[in-house]
Design a protein that fits this description.
Elements (H helix, E strand, L loop, with lengths): L1 H18 L2 E3 L11 E6 L8 E6 H8 L5 H18 L2 H9 L4
Parallel strand pairs: 1-3
Antiparallel strand pairs: 2-3
């Protein structure tokens, strides 16, 4: 009986979490993210902290130090494109990935 109750409780909590679940990943992504990170955080626009998932692979290019001028330009262009997509959430996501938050 305890197992059945625990299973029901888990399902209920998972369903409630799925309703409020926010996942940050590239809109161009067609396959499952190979490096999904789950955190409790409050991104801009959220009323309260909640469970979010971040596809770390989609932001890897912004976390590396560019070695050449070409890489710097490419990283800058990628960042600007992501700022258009994610707006003020981008810096919060990068802070989470760099463990600053």
């Amino acid at each position: 009986m305890y197992k059945l109750s625990a299973l029901f409780l888990l399902f209920t909590v998972a369903s409630a979490a799925a309703d409020n679940f926010s996942c940050v990943q590239s809109p161009k992504r067609t396959k499952a993210c190979p490096n999904m990170l789950y955190r409790t955080a409050q991104l801009p626009g959220m009323a309260a902290p909640g469970l979010i998932c971040i596809c770390a692979s989609d932001f890897a290019a912004l976390l590396q130090q560019p070695q050449t001028e070409g890489e710097k330009v490419s990283q800058n262009m990628t960042r600007r494109q992501m700022e258009v997509i994610y707006g003020d959430k981008l810096q919060a996501v990068l802070d989470i990935l760099q463990r600053k938050n």
